[in-house]
Design a protein that fits this description.
Blueprint: H1 2-30, H2 46-49, H3 54-65, E1 68-73, E2 76-81, H4 84-93, H5 112-115, H6 124-137, H7 140-145, H8 147-167, E3 171-172, H9 174-190, H10 200-215, H11 219-222, H12 234-261, H13 270-279, H14 287-318, H15 320-334, H16 349-361, E4 367-371, E5 376-378, E6 381-383, E7 388-392, H17 393-397, H18 441-458, E8 459-462, H19 465-470, E9 476-477, E10 483-484, E11 489-494
Parallel strand pairs: 2-7
Antiparallel strand pairs: 1-2, 3-11, 4-7, 5-6, 8-11, 9-10
Bound molecules: protoporphyrin IX containing FE (HEM).
Protoporphyrin IX containing FE binds next to helix 14 and helix 18.
């Protein structure tokens, strides 16, 4: 009797599941969703996407289903954009309706979701913060004024590599590049290093551990009804990490307020500007918004820049003729000057073309995510309100309808071409586009070019023995950034001055 009851319940469950699924498929067809692989009950297309490098799997699926493709992530409806034309419709024509972000379960640790500029809905406080960033924090005049503080960090990087060169030891490129990017950012925000002394590993580890947790596929994001339960404990594990980051930021805020009271001169860095804004009557920026903004700048800023440096070195070692051309340009433009400064970058068109090509082939943020706040029509299909829009930057950058030899590393394709990262030209969008375009673009541009130019101008680079016979392992690892799966190790040799 009991056994037949269990069978009856199980059969009813399967019938309900199949009916709901069939109903969903029918209503998808009625809603004119873009085509896509057939979703399975409950898991949707998660099995199609797999766990390795989703930007690659989705690009392959798009070859079959089109550059606007439906996928279901668990029970969450999404569409994937894989061409410049469709990206342009999303980023230009409909951007006002699709500039929200999806909820990221783990990101709500310590209430960070409400404070984070990266995931905030595009409403009043987010707009106020973005305006402040564009007009003040990342304005050329402020970045120029803080340049000497960053230059000290470039010198420190060169000193570190020189020591390795003197010992004949290899450098694991991503490590000093990460430290330099993090410190250049920290100097721009707080006029000091946050990671000197015993906390060096502290800040670095916070960012690394935090990003791993955020990028772990999370049941909460695919089945929002169970999000509160935090079944994998990702939000719980991230909570002390965010709390620690907030604590570090609070210390900087408190110290600066004390300095102000003691009549210390202003530093006019990002912290000073944000504190001024906070004190204004009716300001939308409160203590939590400051914590959210500064935490997000470190999360978004350091790994992206250092990963770009590592990919660039990897491509240059695979393409010695490009390496020689960049070095020759540096010699011709800088002459006997050994130190590269941010103001030199505009005189180095081939270096800039090379960085563009690196960001085309290896965009560190391979996919970015939006959420439709209203139903929009794109390419004759409907994207219903609430749908997640995945912009597959990597697929757009390797689309063969846009690029000749899309997988080939050819910086020359950017020489004498007006192709900037502003998001206007959707063929090249490593910083995303529309209202949510990367906030740190102006600083990232300076950081990446200066670090790379310094490393290339001052050193010769050679692969260690095993790399010389096998070449660089260019396999990717997916995370908040897409990095080389095997960290790149190279032996520096100081150039004769
Ligand atoms: C090579 C370096 C970098 C790359 C490739 C990069 C790329 C991106 C991309 C693709 C997005 C998503 C844009 C979109 O959704 O349309 C983004 C967002 C963002 N980036 Fe960057 N980024 C870099 C460096 C930085 C730096 C240095 C900072 C800060 C100092 C920064 C801060 C941010 C922030 C705060 C957002 C979220 C903006 C929002 O949602 O309103 N990024 N970045």
């Amino acid at each position: 009797m009991a056994a037949s009851l269990v069978v009856a319940v199980a059969v009813s469950f399967v019938v309900i599941l199949i009916s709901v699924h069939a109903f969903q498929l029918l209503s998808n067809a009625r809603r004119r969703l873009p085509p896509g692989p057939l979703p399975l009950p409950l898991v949707g297309n998660l099995l199609h996407i797999g766990r390795g490098c989703p930007h690659r799997t989705l690009a392959r699926l798009a070859e079959r289903y089109g550059s606007l493709m439906s996928v279901r992530l668990g029970v969450v409806q999404a569409v994937v954009v894989s061409s410049a034309d469709v990206a342009s419709e999303i980023l230009h024509k409909h951007n006002a309706q699709v500039a929200d972000r999806p909820t990221v379960g783990a990101w709500d640790a310590n209430g960070h979701h409400a404070n984070s500029i990266i995931v905030s809905p595009p409403h009043a406080r987010w707009r106020a913060l973005r305006r402040l960033c564009a007009t003040e924090l990342f304005a050329p005049s402020r970045l120029n004024a803080l340049q000497p503080l960053r230059q000290e960090k470039v010198r420190e990087l060169v000193r570190h590599v020189s020591e390795k060169a003197a010992l004949g030891e290899p450098v694991t490129v991503r490590d000093p590049a990460f430290t330099a990017s993090m410190n250049m950012l920290s100097r721009t925000v707080f006029s000091k290093d946050l990671d000197s002394g015993p906390s060096v590993r502290g800040l670095k580890d916070l960012v690394k551990e935090g990003t791993v947790l955020v990028m772990t596929p999370n049941v909460s994001d695919f089945y929002p009804v169970v999000a509160a339960a935090d079944l994998q404990g990702l939000r719980r594990k991230l909570t002390p990490i965010v709390a620690h980051a907030y604590e570090m930021i609070d210390k900087q805020i408190e110290q600066r307020l004390r300095d102000r009271q003691a009549g210390e001169p202003r530093k006019d860095d990002m912290l000073d500007v944000v504190l001024d804004e906070w004190k204004k009557e009716g300001s939308l920026i409160d203590h939590n918004a400051m914590r959210g903004l500064f935490t997000d700048l470190f999360v978004a800023g350091a790994d992206t820049s250092s990963t770009t440096v590592e990919w660039a070195m990897a491509e240059l070692l695979q393409n010695p003729q490009v390496m020689n051309k960049v070095k020759r340009e540096l010699r011709e433009v800088l002459g006997t000057k050994t130190e590269v400064e941010e103001s030199d970058i505009s005189q180095l068109p081939y270096l800039q073309a090379m960085v563009k090509e690196v960001l085309r082939l290896h965009p560190p943020v391979a996919m970015t995510y939006y959420r439709a706040e209203a139903t929009v029509e794109v390419q004759g299909y409907q994207i219903p309100q609430g749908t997640i829009i995945i912009l597959n930057i990597s697929a757009v950058h390797r689309n063969e309808n846009t690029w000749d030899n899309p997988d080939k590393f050819e910086p020359e394709r950017f020489m004498n071409k007006e192709r900037e990262f502003s998001g206007k030209d959707c063929r090249l969008i490593p910083f995303g586009g529309g209202r949510r375009i990367c906030l740190g673009l102006p600083l990232a541009n300076r950081t990446v070019h200066t670090i790379l130019a310094s490393l290339l101008h001052q050193f010769e680079w050679n692969l260690p023995e095993e790399g010389r016979s096998n070449g660089v392992d260019m396999a990717e690892k997916y995370g908040v950034v897409v990095s080389l799966a095997t960290p790149l190790k190279v032996i520096p040799q100081k150039c004769a001055s």
